[in-house]
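Message: I would love a firmer grasp of how sequence relates to backbone shape in proteins. Thank you; the sequence and its tokens follow:
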Amino acid sequence: MNDALRLVLLLAIAGVALTAVGGLLARYLDQQRRIMRYLRMALSAQPEGVMLDRGLGRALAFNLDAGRIAVLWDRGRTGLVYTLDQLRGGELMVDHMVLARSYRGEPRKLLDEIPMSARKITLRLIFNNPRDPEFELELWPARHGRGHEHPSPPEAVLAGRRWLTSLEAILGRPAPARMLTKPAPLASVLPDEDEPPPWDEDEEDV
């Protein structure tokens, strides 16, 4: 009788644990889908070069045909949209040291060695905008318990290097015929997370 009761308790505990894990996984995937939806709305096109920090709800992506790059934070509910010609460059930082960089009109700093361990890996973008000149996205979190987009620090560094390679190609492209005179902001507060964020873009012919 005791063995049977013990078995029932173990099955009940396992069921509760599986339910909790399933709930966390569903929430994790829902956040990713929501951020991807916001990126599509921000770019008015399919996101390319997507980079995510699920733990902090930050993301960035571009679309070459649309000539835009979007950076989001606050679980994707707040952000800015720039034209690609407003993107000045980017850096890959590991434990607060710049290991690689690419800036418009400047020599590129190549990544000479892939670090095998790191507490923090960050991709930092610089924009031609005095009010919001930079955006940082953590590729490898310094704290545990947050969603890791990459399985290890070397994988995170390689992902950052690939993005900088894309950035190098972006910086070499000619400026588009149309551009935003200022970055287009998302509303800072939404009435419902299931509702898409409102956008207000101010476009002028150059």
User: Anything to note?
Assistant: Residues 2-43 form the longest helix (42 residues). Residues 2-189 form one domain.
